[in-house]
Amino acid sequence: MHIAIAGNIGSGKTTLTRLLSKHYGWEAHYEDVDDNPYLNDFYEDMQRWSFNLQIYFLNSRFNQTLDIRKSGKTVIQDRTIYEDAYIFAPNLHAMGLMSTRDFENYFTLFNLISGLIKPPDLILYLRATVPTLVSQIQNRGRKYEDNIRLDYLKRLNERYEAWAEAYNMGNMLIVEADHYDFPNNADHLSEVIDKIDAEIHGLF
């Protein structure tokens, strides 16, 4: 089974992936952040590096998704390939940070890839307001994230909402991340685990 956690930058995806992996004994696949050769450059100059970054993520997540299906194990994944294509790349294009030529090239490649993979059995969407995102981004203290603009996070949130509303490729559970403190409150984690259990039992 393939479970994935979706959500904006700073919504708590990696933390929840780690906690659920430990609770259920699922194998965790994390987003390639520390070894990503484009992230620092991207936040310094989004227009110059947006296409390179999105292609890197597309390649990385395509390989990850293939590995998940081949493994035959239950895997929990930190962010999906669909978020890149339906949220991050269109947002960069709309903000004038990716050219139409590059965006069309990217999306043609995504459409080819999406025909070769299956969507997750369940997506958990961590919905968080901009103040929550900013607070969590500041708390984790990644240097390259110092340059993230508020309007960038706000636009991403709007696209996440539109994507979640239209999503029809499988089950999606929306988690109101503003109301939960997963690392420090066991009751909050238990509450979400109960919701996941109900969703998973409904899949069989």
Secondary structure layout:
Elements: E1 2-7, H1 13-24, E2 27-29, H2 39-44, H3 46-71, E3 75-78, H4 81-94, H5 100-114, E4 122-127, H6 130-140, H7 150-166, E5 171-176, H8 186-203
Helix pairs in contact: 3-4, 3-5, 4-5, 4-7
Task: Supply the key terms.
alpha/beta, globular, Rossmann fold, five-stranded parallel β-sheet, 8 helices, 5 strands
Notes on the protein architecture:
The protein has one domain: P-loop containing nucleotide triphosphate hydrolases (Rossmann fold), CATH 3.40.50. Helices cover 58% and strands 12% of the residues. It is built from eight helices and five strands. It has helices spanning 13-24, 39-44, 46-71, 81-94, 100-114, 130-140, 150-166, 186-203; strands at residues 2-7, 27-29, 75-78, 122-127, 171-176. It has a five-stranded parallel beta sheet with strand order 2-3-1-4-5, with helices on both faces. Helix 3 (46-71) packs parallel to helix 5 and helix 4 packs antiparallel against helix 5. The radius of gyration is 16 Å and the shape is globular. It starts with a strand and ends with a helix.
Succession of helices and strands: EHEHHEHHEHHEH
Uncertain ranges: none
How many domains is the backbone divided into? 1
What do the pLDDT scores average to? 91
* CATH uppermost class: Alpha Beta
End-to-end Cα distance, whole Å, is 11 Å
The percentage helix is 55-70%
* CATH fold naming: Rossmann fold
CATH architecture: 3-Layer(aba) Sandwich
